[in-house]
């Protein structure tokens, strides 16, 4: 068994630093380069070691899910789907229009939002509280959770007076006719025993407890409590659990949902909301219609009175004037005046047009194209209806065009131009006379019309004031008649609406009894627990894998180093040792003896040509078991009839003498300084062919002693007597003495301790082989468990497989706690 020397590691590092040794412990950057990828063997080892933890965490996750479901009250949800459309029979009778608008018509999204607010308003809440027993909550207390007894409570509470709202009253039956009541008041518990059915007072509140048909003998063994809710608590409860949503605005559908711990209560509330909402809608519609009819009746009464007065006034006028034709006469005169006014406007327009033509003629501005007539150029001339004027204008236009053409070809003094201009002046003179005569004629006609209008006006003025009086009396009569007829029509329409308007309140999906809770969902909770356990287990595996920085198996050793593996030494757990000891002589048939024999055989293969061998044993740091391996390997070789001497060159911390229980007064250090001879320092062991030389007193310069010629002379002299020289060297990871000795050795051996040596140390082996050309450097895996020896043929296949039932050693009896601790380690 390798000796655990973790406590001495820090001291060794200090000693190596103080003696000027060069540390070769790999840095973190070098360690990060080691392995260079995912180590599937290590991952499989960690997974196998963590399997029980994974199963345990999965079990804990599922157990947590079960506990959560066990101690969490399930929430049930009941829903109903409503289609809200208001229709009226008035539309079917052809009385739509305004009546259809009054009856509601097709709902849009804004109206549906209004319906949602109505359902969640205090109007519906008050009717719910009046219809359902929401003022008192009854509960039965269980082992862990309490359950509400909605509709199945074995007792009923009647209360009055100064009520203690929102107070928990505990109740337990002491007999079929008596009960005990307890509650907290001012932080102190109050208790009393009362009779069923008899009123009693608590402060200013009067209570009476009555039994219900659900009362049975089992209720005597149970504990109950009840709470009297005030209006605020009930409203808060309804607001918190009621959900009203618009499902489809085009289809006018609304979903009403309610959540509660009691499925029957949730269903009852949803059904009652449907009923109360229908009643409220009908009541609102009937109230609106009744108010409208009342207003119509009031207006009809007032209008009927005004109409009677107007009719009486008109009858009085007819009796006095004996006629109703004044209105017709006035109408005829008015029509004639309107006709005359139209003719007068036409004459005025003609006079204006003649004035404009005269002005144009004087200015010479009447020009039209040669291919057009003057009437076409001035369309308004047709309204004058004077052919002579049109002819003269046409002639004037032709002369103007001829004058322009001549002016372009001849001078102004030319005879032809002078003749054309004289002809043009003559036509203009005729045109002036014609225009003047036409204007005079039209002015005389206009004066005649003015005289006729004055005649009609005088005639109207001469009519008595009967027409005005008649018109004044007729206007209110017509107004009251129209208003009366309109109000009568509206009253008929609203009477039809009152009889035919019904809210089209269709329950597309009634509220059913919820059997499965919406929360918590059992499958989801168990899935979360299972996933949590798996995630935690895999996380534990990942953490253990990334924290797994020690060598555990031969496969890791072979994978990370270029050195050959001589063998594996299993864990020696037959006894506890404070220091390394020779054990192969006491247990020659043990598994550890057989494993070291296999190493001896492998050494024979490596150095079969040499009879004299120098073997050095080293490691990276102290505590990896190089002294234990050196002593027992030397013992096994000595048992094969070879003379072996073990040299303890770990002068800073000698241990070989402790393994054999000897003193360290003289040894290698005194030989090298020639204070003692080799024969004086050789010490014998229980094995006749095995001797050893201890390190001797610690010198100040171990490295210089080893480099001296005296050291080589000592080795040469020992070769004369011994077949094998086995050197226990200092750790090469702390000081350089071991490297100096390894260069002289025929077979350098590097000890790696399972579950102790860091994986980063393996890189040190490769560096030593490359830097010093150690082609024969071999490694031994020390203190390996059965899993660490797996894959190494002899150590596992023979050392354990063959050894069962053959080796003399027996494993010590382990307690169940010890085995469990090892299993989870």
From TrEMBL:
Catalyses which reaction(s): L-tyrosyl-[protein] + ATP = O-phospho-L-tyrosyl-[protein] + ADP + H(+)
- Judging by the UniProt lineage, the source's domain of life is Bacteria
Which residue range or ranges hold the Tyrosine-protein kinase G-rich domain? 470-545
Q: Which UniProt keywords apply?
A: ATP-binding, Coiled coil, Kinase, Membrane, Nucleotide-binding, Transferase, Transmembrane, Transmembrane helix, Tyrosine-protein kinase
Q: Which GO terms describe its cellular component?
A: plasma membrane
Question: Where are its TM segments located?
Answer: 51-69, 523-547
* UniProt EC number: 2.7.10.2
Q: Which residues form the AAA domain?
A: 613-770
Give any GO molecular function from the UniProt entry. identical protein binding
Entries under InterPro entries matching the protein: AAA_dom, Bact_polysacc_biosynth/exp, GNVR, P-loop_NTPase, Wzc-like_C
List the residue ranges forming a coiled coil, or say none. 293-357, 403-452
Protein family (similarity comment): Belongs to the CpsD/CapB family.
Q: What is this protein called?
A: non-specific protein-tyrosine kinase
Name the source organism: Hymenobacter sediminicola
């Amino acid at each position: 068994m390798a000796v655990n020397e973790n406590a001495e590691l820090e001291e060794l590092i200090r000693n190596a630093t103080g003696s000027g040794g060069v540390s070769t412990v790999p840095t973190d950057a070098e360690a990060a380069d080691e392995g260079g990828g995912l180590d599937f063997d290590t991952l499989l080892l960690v997974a196998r070691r963590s399997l029980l933890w994974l199963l345990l965490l999965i079990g804990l996750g599922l157990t947590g899910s079960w506990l959560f479901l066990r101690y969490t009250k399930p929430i049930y949800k009941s829903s109903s789907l409503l289609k809200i459309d208001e229709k009226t029979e008035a539309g079917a009778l052809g009385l739509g229009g305004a009546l259809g608008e009054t009856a509601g018509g097709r709902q849009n999204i804004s109206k549906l939002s209004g319906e949602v607010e109505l359902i969640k308003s205090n109007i519906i809440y008050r009717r719910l509280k009046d219809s359902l027993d929401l003022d008192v909550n009854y509960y039965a207390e269980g082992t862990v959770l309490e359950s509400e007894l909605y509709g199945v409570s074995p007792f009923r509470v009647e209360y009055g007076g100064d009520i203690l709202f929102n107070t928990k009253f505990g109740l337990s039956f002491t007999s079929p006719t008596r009960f005990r009541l307890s509650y907290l008041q001012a932080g102190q518990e109050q208790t009393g025993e009362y009779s069923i059915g008899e009123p009693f007072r608590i402060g200013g509140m009067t209570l009476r407890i009555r039994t219900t048909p659900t009362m049975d003998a089992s209720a005597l063994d149970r504990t109950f409590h009840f709470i009297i809710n005030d209006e605020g608590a009930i409203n808060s409860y309804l607001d918190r659990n009621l959900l009203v949503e618009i499902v489809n605005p085009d289809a006018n559908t609304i979903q009403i949902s309610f959540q509660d711990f009691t499925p029957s209560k949730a269903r009852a509330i949803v059904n009652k909301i449907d009923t109360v909402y229908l009643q409220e809608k009908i009541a609102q519609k009937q109230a609106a219609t009744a108010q409208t009819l009342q207003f119509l009746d009031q207006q009809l009464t007032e209008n009927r009175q005004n109409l009677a007065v107007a009719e009486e006034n008109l009858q009085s006028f007819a009796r006095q004037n004996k006629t109703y034709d004044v209105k017709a006469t006035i109408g005829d005169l008015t029509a004639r005046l309107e006709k005359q006014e139209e003719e007068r406007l036409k004459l005025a327009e003609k006079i204006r047009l003649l004035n404009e033509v005269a002005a144009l003629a004087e200015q010479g501005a009447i020009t039209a194209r040669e291919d057009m007539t003057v009437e076409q150029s001035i369309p308004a001339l047709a309204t004058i209806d004077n052919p002579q004027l049109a002819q003269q204008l046409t002639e004037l236009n032709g002369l103007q065009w001829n004058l322009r053409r001549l002016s372009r070809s001849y001078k102004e003094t030319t005879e032809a131009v002078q003749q054309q201009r004289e002809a043009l002046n003559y036509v203009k003179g005729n045109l002036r006379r014609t225009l003047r005569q036409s204007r005079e004629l039209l002015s005389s006609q206009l004066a005649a019309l003015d005289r006729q209008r004055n005649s009609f006006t005088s005639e109207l003025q001469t009519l008595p004031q009967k027409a005005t009086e008649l018109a004044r009396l007729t206007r209110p009569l017509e107004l009251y008649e129209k208003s009366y007829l309109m109000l009568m029509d509206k009253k008929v329409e609203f009477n039809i609406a009152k009889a035919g308007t019904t809210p089209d309140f269709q329950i597309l999906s009634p509220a059913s009894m919820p059997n499965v809770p919406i929360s918590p969902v059992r499958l989801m909770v168990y899935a979360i627990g299972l996933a949590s356990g798996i995630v935690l287990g895999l996380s534990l595996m990942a953490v253990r894998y990334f924290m797994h920085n020690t060598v555990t198996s031969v496969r890791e050793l072979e994978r990370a180093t270029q050195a050959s593996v001589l063998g594996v030494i299993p864990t020696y757990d037959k006894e506890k040792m404070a220091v390394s000891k020779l054990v192969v002589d006491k247990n020659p048939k043990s598994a550890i003896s057989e494993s070291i024999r296999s190493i001896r055989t492998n050494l024979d293969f490596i150095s079969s040509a040499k009879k004299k061998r120098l073997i050095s044993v080293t490691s990276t740091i102290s505590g990896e078991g190089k002294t234990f391996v050196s002593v027992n390997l030397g013992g096994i070789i000595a048992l094969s009839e070879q003379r072996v001497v073990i040299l303890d060159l770990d002068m800073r911390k000698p241990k070989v003498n402790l393994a054999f229980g000897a003193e360290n007064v003289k040894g290698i250090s005194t030989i090298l300084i020639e204070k003692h001879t080799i024969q004086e320092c050789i010490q014998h062991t229980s094995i006749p062919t095995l001797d050893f030389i201890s390190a001797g007193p610690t010198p100040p310069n171990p490295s210089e002693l080893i480099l001296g010629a005296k050291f080589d002379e000592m080795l040469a002299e020992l070769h004369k007597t011994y077949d094998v020289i086995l050197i226990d060297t200092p750790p090469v990871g702390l000081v350089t003495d071991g490297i100096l000795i390894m260069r002289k050795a025929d077979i350098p051996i590097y000890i790696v301790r399972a579950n102790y040596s860091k994986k980063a140390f393996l890189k040190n082996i490769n560096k030593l082989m490359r830097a010093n050309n150690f082609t024969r450097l071999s490694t031994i895996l020390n203190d390996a468990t059965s899993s660490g020896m797996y894959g190494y043929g002899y150590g596992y296949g023979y050392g354990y497989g063959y050894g069962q039932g053959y080796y003399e050693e027996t494993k010590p009896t382990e307690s169940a706690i010890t085995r469990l601790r090892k299993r989870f380690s």
